[in-house]
Amino acid sequence: MFTGYNTKKRVNERYKIIGFISSGTYGRVYKAESRNANPPSSKLFAIKKFKPDKEGELQYSGISQSAIREMALCTELAHPNVIHTVEIILEEKCIFIVFEYAEHDLLQIIHHHNTGGQGGRQAIPARTIKSILWQLLQGLVYLHRNWVMHRDLKPANIMVTSAGKVKIGDLGLARLFYKPLQSLFSGDKVVVTIWYRAPELLLGSRHYTPAVDLWAVGCIFAELLSLRPIFKGEEAKMDGKKTVPFQRNQMQKIVEIMGMPSKERWPLLTSMPEFPQLSSLATGNARFQRPQGMENWYQGCLKNNQYPPGSGPDTSGPEGFDLLQSLLEYDPQKRLTAEKALLHPYFTSHGNPSENCFEESKIRYPMRRVSKEDNDIRTGSLPGTKRSGLPDDSLIGRPAKRLKEG
C-alpha cells in the first residue's frame, strides 16, 4: 500500500543506505533498509533519487517531466506484477521514490546463463521462461486495462524477487493513452530502447497503441530463449535540430529475420512517414530477398543453447513458436493483445505456468551487486549510466540511458 508523500522526515532518518545500484539520465538508485524494521534486513527497499531538471545551474528549476509522470503513475498503481511504490519523500531541492526491493532482474538472469554461471553457457529452463512470460503479461494486462502504456519494456526493467515474483519496473516513459490531448509522438518523439522498438515506431508512426508493449514482450521472449537480443541494431542519434532519424540499422536487423513487410501483410504500411526509406532500404540487398525466417531462427536456439534434459523450448511443442510469431507481428492491429496472449495454448500445454518462476529450478542466481564505495545518497553525483551488477561489456550496444528501480 502506498503510504503517501512524506515531508516531515528526511530520507536518512527513515532509511539506512546500504549501497549504490545504478544511475541514469534522471538520477540514481540505491539499496536501503528501514531504520524502523526489526531486524532491519527484513525490510529492504530501492530508493530512486531524482536530480533537478537543470542540476548544476545557479538557480534550481525543478525536476524533469519524466519524474513527475512517474510519481503520478506509481502512486495510483497496485498489482502483484508491477513494482510497488512505498512512499515519496519530499526534501528541499530533492525528491525520492521508495520502492519495494527485488533481488534480480531479467538482464541479470540472462547474463548469468550466458556467461557460464551454470558451468558453461546454458539456456534458461522452459518452465522458468513460461512463468516469467505469464507474470509479465499479467502485469501488462493490468497496466493496459488502466490505460497505461509502459513504452520501455526490456529485460533490465523487469524485476524478479527471490521468491520468483516478476514485477514490471521503471515507469519513467509510461503514459496514459486514454483520450490524450495531443498525439503521444508530440510529447515523446523517441520511446522504447532501440532493440525492443516496434516497427510502427521505427517507421515514424505519429499514433500508436499498447501494441508497442507487446512487440517488446516478443523481443524479451526471444531473448529468454536465445540469451541474445533477437534484433540487435545500432541506434542513429538525433542531430542538433532534434530531428528523429530513420533507424535504418535496426529495421535491417528485423527484416533480415522476418523479411520485408508488405501491404498485404500490413495494410497501413504505406501510410507510415518513413515508408519511402523502407522501400529504398531493400534495393540491392540480397539478405532481404532471402531472410533467415523466424522458424529457422527458432530452431537455431535449440542448436546453439545447451539445455538441461527435457527443458528446452521444444518441450512446449509448436505453441511457443506460435506465440512468439503472434507477438512479433508487423501489423500492430494483428499483434496479440496482452489479454489474448494469456489465453494462448502455450500457457496450458505441457503444464500450467507457476506464479514462482524459480519453482522446481535448482539454479541459484547471484544477488544484485551494490557498490559500497558510492552510497552517499545526499551527495552522490551522476557520473554515468553504468550498472554496478554487470561487467562493462554486458551493456555494449544497449542504450542504458534510463533508470531501473526495485
Give a verbal description of the structure.
The protein is of the alpha+beta class. It is 28% helix and 13% strand. The chain has helices at residues 11-14, 65-74, 106-114, 126-145, 184-187, 199-202, 211-226, 248-258, 275-281, 286-289, 294-304, 319-327, 338-342; strands at 5-6, 15-24, 27-34, 44-50, 85-91, 94-100, 104-105, 148-149, 158-160, 166-168, 175-176. The strands form three sheets. A six-stranded mixed β-sheet has the order 1-5-6-4-3-2. It has a three-stranded antiparallel β-sheet with strand order 7-9-10. A hairpin with a 2-residue loop joins β2 (15-24) and β3. The model is unreliable at 55-59 and 381-406 (pLDDT under 50). It is an enzyme of class 2 (transferase). Its cofactor is Mg(2+). Belongs to the protein kinase superfamily. CMGC Ser/Thr protein kinase family. CDC2/CDKX subfamily.
Beta-strand content? 5-15%
Strand order of the largest sheet: 1-5-6-4-3-2
In the predicted model, the low-confidence regions spanning at least 5 consecutive residues are 55-59, 381-406
Name the helix and strand elements from N-terminus to C-terminus, one letter apiece.
EHEEEHEEEHHEEEEHHHHHHHHH
Main sheet specs: 6 strands, mixed
Number of helices: 13
Second CATH tier, the architecture of the largest domain: Orthogonal Bundle
Helix content bin? 25-40%
Shape verdict? globular
> For the residues shown, what is the average pLDDT?
81
CATH fold-level label of the largest domain = Transferase(Phosphotransferase), domain 1
Q: What is the CATH level 1 assignment of the largest domain?
A: Mainly Alpha
User: What structural class is derived from the secondary structure elements?
Assistant: alpha+beta
- In CATH, what is the homologous superfamily of the largest domain? Transferase(Phosphotransferase) domain 1
Cα-based radius of gyration, to the nearest Å: 21 Å
Number of strands: 11
Question: What is the distance, rounded to the nearest whole angstrom, between the alpha carbons of the first and last residues?
Answer: 16 Å
Number of domain units: 2
User: Which oligomerization state do the chains in this entry correspond to?
Assistant: single chain
